[in-house]
Amino acid sequence: MPRIAEDRPAAEPQSPGQKARHERILNVAARLGAERGLEHVQMHDVAKEAGVAIATLYRYFPSKTHLFTAIMASQVERMSEGSPRIDAAADPVDAVAETLLRSTRHMLHTPRLAGAMMQSNFAAHAATVTEAAGIEAKVHHTVLGLLGLSEPTDRDNRLIRLLMKSWHGLLVSAINGHSSMSETETEIRLACEVLLGARSNAPE
User: For position 16, what pLDDT does the model report?
Assistant: First the structure.
């Protein structure tokens, strides 16, 4: 498990130059994570290849947990942008399944990076890393939108949380080589059908 730094807030980039450095750090860390996996990525290597001082890196990302959770957050941010558009005849559950499957395929294209992001995200909940809550909220909001649930019930929210836990488990299984891509896709679709078919606005 990645080392968790002292509990202090990460700095937010403000100026265009700071934002460019921040983005460069994320891109370098994602590349190194895809090549080496979490345990073999060193913060000083990230700083060197991103062309920033190590103090700058730690100001934005106090630990590798913060760094790789931020990478996951940036990928999740793009999830809704690529989500299938739903017309009147579309099945919302299919739209959710396709969105999760697209993200799954993208993550499994670089399994070492996917493992680094998932491991860091799990650790981040205990460390109260800001991005961790944002990831969960963003995915939850995306699923609500795809389902057309503008006023979800408590049961709706619980069903979506159960779906996210199922998805995370299936991702980890696939990343670790315990499930094939075909099995993972079939089980993601099944989880969507079983759990989301019980939502409040499901057809009678």
Answer: 85
